[in-house]
Design goal:
The complex is a heterodimer. By secondary structure, chain A is an all-beta fold. Chain A is built from no helices and 10 strands. Chain A is 0% helix and 48% strand. Chain B is built from no helices and 10 strands. Classes of the chains: A mainly beta, B mainly beta.
Chain lengths: 110, 115
């Protein structure tokens, strides 16, 4: 199974943009990149997903490198409620499982 | 609408006892997943159900772990003869289908503590 690598922690100031990187150098051509986040004492919640093209939704943007070996989750204006652990996961073509790494713990300073 | 619910929210048991954890998925979701999350760790896949197909049990760590699902509704994860290393948060998720783009919706989890 392909793996993902993320920094253990990052810090941001409120109302500033945040770029959360993820490396997935062993990704295969049919693997989708999914991002979830987990607030304290809650289950993970979906943020965004993509295959090759950059994606935008109301929560965030996902920038995918041309070779697909890395991606970046972009929060355009961080708020205190965005403090969470952010997981970059892969969904393989024939594999129903999401492959989870350790995630990045994001702290947002007021 | 109602999300994924899990019960109990917390369970404390003694080593060697059996426990049952329950998951109620979102109505109409055909796929259901169980994960385990140890303290400070990512999610570890346990088992997956999709409609009437045979479940994918490849993530179950030992034969002490089993799970059942009735049709496309409730699922129960059973851990027999619990050990201290079974202490973790057990998360259930459901999705409409099981495609590569399907979003998984998670419940709040059951925190299991084995003394």
């Amino acid at each position: 199974d392909a793996k993902t690598t993320q920094p253990n922690s990052m810090e941001s100031n409120e109302e500033e943009p945040v770029h959360l990187p993820c490396n997935h150098s062993t990704i295969s051509g049919t693997d989708y990149i999914h991002w979830y986040r987990q607030l304290p004492s809650q289950g993970p919640e979906y943020v965004i997903h993509g295959l090759t093209s950059n994606v935008n939704n109301r929560m965030a943007s996902l920038a995918i490198a041309e070779d697909r070996k890395s991606s970046t989750l972009i929060l355009h204006r961080a708020t205190l409620r965005d403090a969470a652990v952010y997981y970059c996961t892969l969904r393989a073509g024939n594999n129903r499982k999401l492959i989870w790494g350790l995630g990045t713990s994001l702290a947002v300073n007021p | 609408g109602a999300g994924v619910s899990q019960s109990p929210s917390n369970k404390v048991t003694e080593k060697g006892k059996d426990v049952e954890l329950r998951c109620d998925p979102i109505s109409g979701h055909t796929a259901l997943y169980w994960y385990r999350q140890r303290l400070g760790q990512g999610l570890e896949f346990l088992i997956y159900f999709q409609g009437n197909s045979a479940p994918d049990k490849s993530g179950l760590p030992s034969d002490r772990f089993s799970a059942e699902r009735t049709g496309e509704s409730v699922s129960t994860l059973t851990i027999q003869r619990t050990q201290q290393e079974d202490s973790a948060v057990y998360l259930c998720a459901s999705s409409l289908l099981a495609g590569r783009t399907d979003t998984q919706y998670f419940g709040p989890g059951t925190r299991l503590t084995v003394l």
